[in-house]
Here is the input.
Amino acid sequence: MDKSRRKTGFPVMEEMTLKMVREYLEKKNSIILPVGLMEQHGYHLPLITDALVARETARMTAERTGILMAPVLCASFSGGGLPGTINISPAVTSLVINDTLVSLASQGFKKIYIILGHGGGENFNVLNIGLRVLLNSNPVFSDVVLALLPAWSFDETGIGWKKAVKEKDFHAGWLETSIVMALEPELVHMDEMELDGKPPAGTEDPDNYMQAEKIVDDPMVIARVRQKKEIKVGVHGYPPKASPELGRKLVEETVALMVKKVREIEDGYDGKYKKVRWSMNAG
Here is the structure.
């Protein structure tokens, strides 16, 4: 963090001392935890793209709410296998995040907001289930609220994530490229951009960059799923359509909606769990 950010006065855990955290907890008990990973994003975007989205949306949300921001966790499962990608199995990801939450809750944090910068069904599903089990099994969370805030859920106007899905722009395409252009333009290398075929491989479906294999083709046999060998770049979308202006709009909307949601949860918190309508497929 540069000096200009410190002057804003919002608390950043990695820059604080023990005394500072104690003083913060005397006034507030909320914290924002960004989660991302290191993953292939073609030749034009940095490996840190997903972690960058989580960190910067968390930072801006923290600035506007005055809530403490924890260091970004780069422990997630990509599914890709190109150089630079670091895969942490979904089960381990869940354990790392759960242990982090136990530590924070044990220190006195009561409202914890987890901002996700990376999607992927493996990650999200295991994390969601792991958080439910954590709340059910560990008494330290008896008065703690956990909120899972995926960045892609904050698209009220439909000009970002929703539009990207409709246009089959799933990964390292115009959406992510626009966002990184807005957040860290010096990390974007459009002059080196390449695609996996024409049209880009995997654009029919977000998981089409993977292939399933079985020794015996039977519905009860578990498939081995891994990235297709023809994927050489890891771009599943249309990055030439990106622009920093669009990126700024997307970031501003995401942060504004996150701030609104965080404030709603802050206002509704009373430390008591109450019966609500729920299904296994809901949050």
